[in-house]
Design goal:
Radius of gyration: 21 Å
Strand content: under 5%
Distance between the termini: 63 Å
Number of helices: 17
Largest sheet: none
Order of helices and strands: HHHHHHHHHHHHHHHHH
Structural class: mainly alpha
Length: 406
């Protein structure tokens, strides 16, 4: 049997049960290294070309939609594919299978991180912090080339850096994205995209509106309930609700939510972020590590699962809300222009995070700079898988820790 050409329009097969969806995404959950862009390539190869769950046009629409929305784009695409293939249970199965492998690995690391004391443990944690410098620098570089290719968008990114630096915390980040979108309406108009056919999604507009209402109800109600024990869920829900660009862009929001209040110390935060580069699946599972590493209850496995559910929930609610309306919405030139500006602001926010807390917490000596630069070159020029950089940096950190102890 010949393999269909990637540019062929392949009809979707009939929907199947959640078990089929779970098995397909469990494979992806254990093998999808490399971040959200790589995940979309894995999805296309496995689910569009090989399994023929949807055709190319439908897949392209899903990717466009999830890049438009706040939240983790690759997980939102996977959730939508599970919804198309197996209905609501299929959507849940897709999310669980793709997310839990990396989440459980990070929870296990958080549980053992407390015993990593002494020079060897300190060296390991410092090596993981250096990985974060290389990975975030790579993300800034790659996103800048893609999302700020002209002077107007580069200017928006620069203004976003200034806002994020002088207005630290979630307020500055939200203000950067909002002003970027407004500037995009004025500066970033371009050729309009054509609308594809209606997406074959088993979600009515009534259900979509209900999901949107729930999204906003939780966003505004949870801060009122934080004092009564919902603080952990509220902090991670807010972070997931305000992330445009997904992936590494969640770093400054999480830093503002858990490091600035003193819930997690900067060293533990960056060590977990470095380790998150070594595991497959979505980077948002970093939340499971943070929830598990909290010094007070709820922490451990329970805290990790609360944080994990909270950070993903807003993005999944938004994709459910938008699917019935996306076909007509994305054809509007004003929407496209606003998103160009918002995406440019995302680059600026990430650039500010590269300096603080990533650089300031990890680079103390010339050798730190050399190791971080080596990781950056291996990632960008040699296309080395991130997990190899993590492993190498961790080993080097432990060796330096042992030598320093002598």
């Amino acid at each position: 049997m010949t393999t269909p050409s990637p540019d062929q329009s392949l009809p979707a097969r009939s929907t199947s049960g959640a078990g089929d969806v779970f098995r397909a995404f469990l494979k992806l959950g254990f093998t999808s290294f490399g971040g959200p862009i790589a995940h979309l390539g894995y999805f296309r190869d496995e689910l569009v070309i090989r399994r023929r769950w949807v055709d190319e046009a439908t897949y392209g629409d899903l990717v466009a939609l999830c890049q438009f929305l706040p939240g983790p784009a690759s997980s939102q695409v996977g959730f939508a594919l599970g919804l198309i293939r197996g209905g609501p249970l299929g959507a849940l199965a897709a999310w669980c299978a793709f997310t839990l492998p990396s989440a459980l690995l990070l929870v296990a690391f958080a549980s053992s991180a407390a015993v990593l004391e002494g020079p060897v443990g300190a060296g390991l944690l410092h090596g993981l912090k250096l990985v974060a410098v290389a990975v975030v620098a790579q993300a800034v570089w790659g996103m800048a080339r893609t999302l700020t290719p002209d002077r107007p968008r580069a200017g928006i990114a620069f203004i976003a850096v200034l806002i994020a630096v002088f207005l630290p915390g979630p307020f500055g980040q939200v203000a950067s994205i909002a002003l970027g979108a407004l500037a995009g309406l004025w500066l970033c108009r371009g050729t309009a995209l054509s609308a594809n056919a209606h997406l074959p999604v088993p979600v009515t507009r009534t259900v979509g509106l209900a999901a949107l209402l729930l999204f906003f109800a939780l966003l505004f109600a949870l801060p009122l309930l934080a004092a009564s024990g919902a603080a952990l869920f509220e902090a991670f829900y807010r972070s997931g609700a305000l992330v445009f660009g997904g992936g590494h862009v969640v770093l400054p929001l999480l830093q503002a939510s858990v490091v600035e209040p003193g819930w997690i110390d900067p060293a533990t935060f960056l060590a977990g972020y470095g380790l998150a580069q070594a595991v497959p699946g979505p980077l948002f599972t970093f939340a499971a590590y943070l929830g598990a590493a909290m010094p007070t209850a709820p922490n451990g496995l329970l805290g990790g699962m609360i944080a994990l559910a909270a950070i993903f929930l807003p993005g999944l609610l938004l994709v459910t809300a938008a699917l019935p309306f996306w076909g007509s919405l994305r054809a509007r030139p004003t929407v496209q222009a606003a998103m160009r500006g918002a995406n440019a602001a995302v680059v600026g926010i990430l650039g500010a995070a590269l300096y603080d807390p990533v650089w300031t917490s990890a680079i103390h000596l010339p050798r730190d700079f050399a190791l971080a630069l080596a990781g950056f070159v291996l990632l960008t020029a040699f296309k080395c898988p991130p997990w190899i950089i993590v492993l190498g940096s961790a080993i080097v950190g432990m060796v330096l820790g042992m030598l320093g102890a002598r």
